[in-house]
Design brief:
The longest helix is centred in the first third of the chain and has 82 residues. By secondary structure, this protein is mainly alpha-helical.
Length: about 230
């Protein structure tokens, strides 16, 4: 009886080989289908992440651009305020000193200073003596400028020089220059003495650049060192 039940149980739970092969095929198909779904999900995720990356890049770039524009506007606003403050200060100082009788300059003095700056900008150095008529040199000599090298070192400046002959020049210009003993002669001496600040400068020597205020109009002509 027990043997018979055991056989019945074995017979009930057992499957034929064809049934087992069929079950394996079903499981294999399900597994392959599952792999296809995983691959599709993987591709979708990669595509989604790629679009998210592009979107994040665009958003970050836009935010960064807006921030940089905001910073530029703020810097420009501060520079303009500094410029106006500096211009006002220059105007007040000019009025203060111009009201002192001993420090007043005539229109001829101012016009001469402006004309000299124009010659410097045009690099017409050979015309200095034609303009500064209270200065003189021996007829065989010429006043000129040795411009800065613009290479090597930490900077260079241009210098006034006198050409003594074809193969000789000197930077000791006051050894040969003669000035008229007059108010205009003194003014021209001052202009020539401070002229190197307005001649071409290179690299760190530009810290020595100066724009002189000879009249109230000059305050609006110059940028007072403010760069926009």
């Amino acid at each position: 009886m027990l043997l018979h039940i055991g056989v019945q149980r074995y017979s009930k739970n057992s499957r034929k080989p064809s049934q087992r092969r069929f079950s394996c095929c079903i499981l294999t198909k399900i597994f392959l289908r599952f792999l296809e779904i995983i691959e599709l999900l993987h591709g979708f995720c990669l595509n989604f992440i790629g679009h998210v990356d592009v979107w994040l890049y665009v958003v970050v770039k836009h935010v960064k651009s807006k921030k940089e524009a905001r910073i530029r506007e703020e810097e420009k606003r501060k520079a303009e305020q500094e410029y106006e403050r500096h211009k006002k200060e220059c105007s007040e100082n000019y009025s203060k000193w111009a009201n002192r009788k001993n420090n007043s300059c005539g229109k001829d003095h101012i016009r001469l200073a402006h004309s000299l700056m124009d010659l410097v900008k045009q690099k017409k150095y050979e015309e200095f003596l034609n303009l500064l008529n209270k200065m003189s040199l021996p007829s065989t000599m010429k006043l000129g400028v040795m411009e800065c090298a613009r290479q090597g070192g930490a900077g260079d400046r241009s210098n006034l020089c006198i050409k003594i002959s074809d193969d000789a020049l000197t930077f000791n210009i006051y050894k040969y220059l003669e000035f008229e003993n007059s108010a205009m002669g003194a003014w021209q001496t001052f202009l020539i003495e401070r002229l190197w600040h307005s001649l071409p400068l290179w690299w760190h020597e530009n810290y020595n650049k100066r724009d002189y205020i000879y009249s109230k109009e000059d305050i609006n002509r110059y940028d007072c060192g403010i760069m926009f």
